[in-house]
């Protein structure tokens, strides 16, 4: 063999080895976005999730976290994920009911009494079956649906004591039927709007009111543009960590299990932070000059009862009660 032939053979062999090494150490990168601040429990949970995924997979799966709507609003991130981008987000499950209507039950009014109830139902066979259906119909994989963001309360400029006080009030809510119909049943005028625009909407008067959980009220500094928080707790905001099915299916079975298990584990971590920080967040909001009020929930609970039948969710509600042993 001539020197030139030897050189060529060596070059081919080297290229093959480089190719093999590239495959062996290839990284799968998932970009997870959130509309919330880094110090929000969801943000802290995602950062911890990213670190633990990297450690457990030896760096072969990389999770990059983007806070404060850096990748867009929640709907925009879901659209990107459905289009096949290696993107995910933490989303209220009701947004996904467009593809699997039964999923709206996770955001139904006055349904879950505690986080533990929601966590238990999110791991039930019935719920996981809806998750499989979501992957088939929408190209989205729910890694875990136990990321609890807290009870949603009414944020207004005037005090409220019942549904009648919300008549004509333009209240920002999430643009999914269960949220819209709940807010309408409570007496307000539902006004869907991206979360990143809520502060300016309240400041400029485009909105009269909003509804949000304690940590988000503090994180978005909404205490600067509202006067009252009424503790309605009308919806327990249970959210899901969702990623593109195309990206998830590129993972090995071993890595899929690691990612799913850590998503559930860190969902509980973030949720417990939410619970621990909730009272502290409301105390900070009150210290900023906002009036925090308790209210008789009976009129609100009565007002939203027709929402279940209107959205054909009575069977799903019965299923929740069955799983929880009620």
UniProtKB/TrEMBL annotation:
Signal peptide interval: 1-26
Keyword Cytoplasm: no
One GO CC annotation: outer membrane-bounded periplasmic space
Originating species: Microbaculum marinisediminis
SUPFAM superfamilies hit by this protein: Periplasmic binding protein-like I (SSF53822)
Entry protein name: C4-dicarboxylate TRAP transporter substrate-binding protein
Keywords: Signal
Record bears the keyword Signal: yes
GO biological process: transmembrane transport
Top-level taxon of origin: Bacteria
